[in-house]
Amino acid sequence: MNSMSRYYYKDDCDPCSKENYDPCKSQKIAATIIKCGCPNSITIPVIAATTTARDFTLASLTLDTRRLKNPCIKLEFASNPVAAAAFTGSLSFQVFKQCGNQITPTPIGPAWAFSEAALIFSQTFSFFVCDCDCSCFNGCCTYTVVATVTSAATTGTLAINNALLGAIVTSSNSCCQN
Q1: What number of helices (H) and strands (E) belong to the chain?
Q2: Under a CB-based contact definition with an 8 Å cutoff, are residues 28 and 174 in contact?
Q3: How far apart are CA 151 and CA 178, in angstroms?
Q4: How far is residue 50's CA from residue 29's CA, in Å, rounded to a whole number?
Q5: Is residue 118 helix, strand or coil?
Q6: What residues does 93 pair with on adjacent strands?
């Protein structure tokens, strides 16, 4: 005789059981979105000290989080910087968010530094940031990764190949959140 044939056990796995049910302690599966942008490549030219155009958009991704409650977004950026000729310079990479009728994009997370000195190279450069402050935006937000030349000047050109921005978005449906 097995233990289930007697009435010894309590069926904790039955989601329809109302006995001893506390919705705040129950585990719920949260809705999740996984989305990747399109790979992009851009060449950063030689920048003179007097050049004012120093920002380059590398990747972008639009997310619609209307159907998620309290969304939290993990944004992942990956790229392959390649210098065919000796490149010297410094860049910063920053993720920006622009939602609805915002005029100015909002920076998300820290700026990531990339610096090389007179090298011919090919390497990977990646980072991730989280944006969990999404409760005030209902609808679509566009996230972009912008590279900004931070050194006074650059020598050589730098190709940033296969720049890709991806996102994993999840919601929290718990009734116990404040």
Answers
A1: 0, 8
A2: yes
A3: 45
A4: 54
A5: strand
A6: 112, 147
Structural domains in the chain? 32-170 (2.60.120.1340)
pTM: 0.78
Closest CA to 94 of 51, 131, 133, 121: 131
Q: What mean pLDDT value characterizes the chain?
A: 82
By three-state DSSP, how is residue 122 classified?
strand
Enumerate residue ranges in the chain where pLDDT < 50. 1-3, 7-9, 11, 14-15, 174-178
110 and 42 Cβ atoms separated by less than 8 Å = no
Question: For residues 164 and 39, is the Cβ–Cβ distance under 8 A?
Answer: yes
Are 147 and 56 in contact, with CB atoms under 8 Å apart?
Answer: yes
Residue in the structure block whose two tokens are 């409650």: 69
Q: How many residues does the chain have?
A: 178
Q: How far is CA 102 from CA 142, 147, 167, in A?
A: 11, 21, 21
List the Cα angle 131/29/24 in 5-degree steps.
95
Burial letters for 16-54: b for 16+ Cβ neighbours within 10 Å, e otherwise?
A: eeeeeeeeeeeeeebeebeeebeebeeebeebeeeeeee
